Amino acid sequence: MSAQAPKRRLLLASDNQEQSRELERILQSVSEVHTVSMSELPDAPADQISGIVVDINLRSAESVQRVRNKLQHESYRAMPRLFVLADALHHGSMQAWALGATDTISRPFDAAGLLQRIRAAFPDSQGFDATERGRTLNRGVAAAHEVMVKIFQKLPAGEPLKFSDIVQAENKILKAIKHSSLREWLTNVGCHHADTYRHCLFVTGFAVAFAQHLGMREDDQRRLVRAALLHDVGKAFVPTAILDKPGLLDEEEMSEIRKHPRLGYEALVAQGGYPPEMLDVVLHHHELLDGTGYPDGLRSNQISDIVRLTTIVDIYAALIEARPHRVQFTHAKALATMEQMEGKLDVHLLHAFRPVTLGAY
Questions:
Q1: What dihedral do alpha carbons 96, 183, 138, 235 form, nearest 10°?
Q2: Rounded-to-integer distance, Cα 162 and Cα 61, Å
Q3: For residue 359, how many C-alpha atoms fall within 13 Å in the half-sphere facing its CB?
Q4: pLDDT in the model for residue 340
Q5: 131 Cβ contact list (under 8 Å, min separation 6)
Q6: Would you state the pLDDT for residue 128?
Q7: Is CATH 1.10.340.30 correct for 130-358?
Q8: Under CATH, to which class is 9-121 assigned?
């Protein structure tokens, strides 16, 4: 009887293979590991590679540029990337996220903790094939769509929107984006959903991908996906003639649209059971750091991190969507437009968001 084949196949890229020996031995207990030097890192990885572990000197401009050039290749874009940090210092961590890390680990290694991170970061390549990947994506989109139906059809008709309805969907959504890709999520949503639903699902996809890119803890990822799903709940109380108007809105119609954050907030407060950070996002996702946003004209440190992050993905999603009154922006133009919104957005978060957009096309 033949031995069972390893469940994962990992590519370990190192600029110091002697230093990487310990890591290689730990990885081999749950994976088949192919270790290569940076100069040997292929332009396109072999089939069935579950992910790449990058163990390089993140303070070396040469090593960083070399790995950046390789990972920009199409075949690497959707692949999970775990970066090894020499220590927990800020510089190395920020450099890793800028290179598209989906998770980071630091020396010295704790073998048990590391293996747990590996199992979470890299799917089982035998038990999670392309067919299952497609099913998982479809289940995630369907779960998100079900929440949209409850928001935009059932809530205005008087049927309660329970917090448990959102929690029930979040696992499927997080799993769908983790095990497929942001691009596949956006394509699926873009093909099958009307404008208002599509925008909310685009924002959700970008928010989850951003959270995973930043290496947020799973609990924080859950908080963000809940907030993103619900951020536009107030639009359920805006007349559909305004929401679906094919042309530009006049001043009176725009005034009605601007009521949606408070309408959504009041509906959820009346319902009860929603965490403060979700209510904060629903009410304040159109606030801007310079005080020119609405409904409360908040400024700077009055705006929480989760709101700042949601605002960025909300604006970006709106710009790249096709709208009846304008041509959709390219990803590059959307980012350039947002970078020109001086003083309005969190520039550090916007800079960190840039690599996430590469996964959308």
A1: 100
A2: 50
A3: 31
A4: 95
A5: none
A6: 47
A7: no
A8: alpha beta
Strand partners, 121: none
Quick one: pLDDT at residue 4?
45
SS (H, E, C) the chain: CCCCCCCCEEEEEECCCCCCHHHHHHHHCCCEEEEEEHHHCCCCCCCCCCEEEEECCCCCHHHHHHHHHHHCCHHHCCCCEEEEECCCCHHHHHHHHHCCCCEEEECCCCHHHHHHHHHHHCCCCCCCCHHHHHHHHHHHHHHHHHHHHHHHHHCCCCCCCCHHHHHHHHHHHHHHHHHCCHHHHHHHHHHHCCHHHHHHHHHHHHHHHHHHHCCCCHHHHHHHHHHHHHCCHHHHHCCHHHHCCCCCCCHHHHHHHCCHHHHHHHHHHHHCCCCHHHHHHHHHCCCCCECCCCCCCCEHHHCCHHHHHHHHHHHHHHHHCCECCECCCCHHHHHHHHHCCCCCCCHHHHHHHHHHHHCCC
pLDDT, residue 310, reads 97
Give the per-residue pLDDT at 6. 47
pLDDT at 201: 93
Segment-wise mean pLDDT, segments of 10 residues, the chain, 361 residues:
56 89 86 86 76 88 86 75 72 72 78 74 55 79 91 89 90 86 83 76 93 87 93 93 84 94 95 93 98 96 95 95 78 92 94 84 61
Whether the link from the prior residue into 45 is cis, omega within 30° of 0, is no
Question: pTM here?
Answer: 0.66
What distance lies between CA 228 and its chain's CA centroid? 10
Q: Two tokens at 279? A: 């209510």
Answer yes or no: are the C-beta atoms of 350 and 338 closer than 8 Å.
yes
Look up residue 40 and give its two tokens.
């040997």
Non-local (6+) Cβ contacts of 4 within 8 A are none
Enter the tokens of residue 296. Answer: 């409360």
Given this model, what pLDDT does residue 300 score? 93
pLDDT of residue 2: 39
Domain boundaries, the chain: 9-121, 130-358
Task: Map tokens 């107030």 to a residue.
Answer: 234
